[in-house]
Amino acid sequence: MQFVENGDFVKAVNMINKRYHNRERKIDPFEVLIHGILSTRTKDTTTFPAQKRLLAVADTPEKIIKLPINQIEKLIYPVGFFHTKAKLVKSACNVLIKEFNSKVPSTKEKLMTIPGVGNKVASLVLEWGFNLPYIAVDTHVNRISQRLGIVPEGTKPEKTELILESILNPKLRITTNYSFVKFGREICRPINPLCGKCPVYSYCGFKLKSKYKNKGLFKIRGDKDINNA
Predict the structure, then answer these.
(1) In this predicted structure, what is the pLDDT of residue 209?
(2) Average pLDDT value for residue range 17-34
(3) Distance in angstroms (rounded) separating the CA atoms of residues 132 and 124
(4) What is the model's pTM?
(5) Is 13:165 a contact under the CB 8 Å cutoff?
(6) Do residues 81 and 154 both lie within one domain?
(7) What is the pLDDT averaged over residues 169-179?
(8) Does a cis peptide bond (omega within 30 degrees of 0) precede residue 193?
(9) Pair 86, 17 in one domain
(10) Which of 68, 97, 130 lies at the terminal end of a domain, its last residue?
(11) pLDDT at residue 221 tops 90
(12) Cα three-residue angle 56-61-62, rounded to 5 degrees
């Protein structure tokens, strides 16, 4: 059930971007790729320091493949599944060297041939690393899209991505992940969202859910807080 009109959703995205999008340059695609591989099921507060530690020691595919697996593990710890991710990072670098002349490819199809890269990570690399109109739908983007009411509760990230791409113009697609992640950390939190401080509360479908929760149509964690916003 959609709680917000497409036009109102676009207005909300523009407001979030205006407040939170201050990424002035594209980020090195290799840096984004490493971040994406390490980020799966790991909080950003853990991923970013791990990524920086690794890249401070080895910042190219050629340098990373020379590192022993146990050294990569130590550098990226405590990201989730660090044993597996250390192997994925090294395998990804081998593929970059052998298949792509050590360059990160700029198409989703080629990116998804790299170990550790699925749809979300590929979209993230294209969005952040190449400034291309893709939307990486992570937990923040999916949660906020549901709360704003543009996609139903329980929508899978892949479906959310298709819906957002059908509504947002290319310029907005490039900025959505970055802005939504910052907005999701600061205001639209998974638990105890700060609805009283939300700049897009007037457009939000989350505030309407109290009318429907007895029918089981819109249950999202944080129910008790919305009534106090």
Answers:
(1) 52
(2) 85
(3) 10
(4) 0.84
(5) no
(6) no
(7) 92
(8) no
(9) no
(10) 130
(11) no
(12) 95
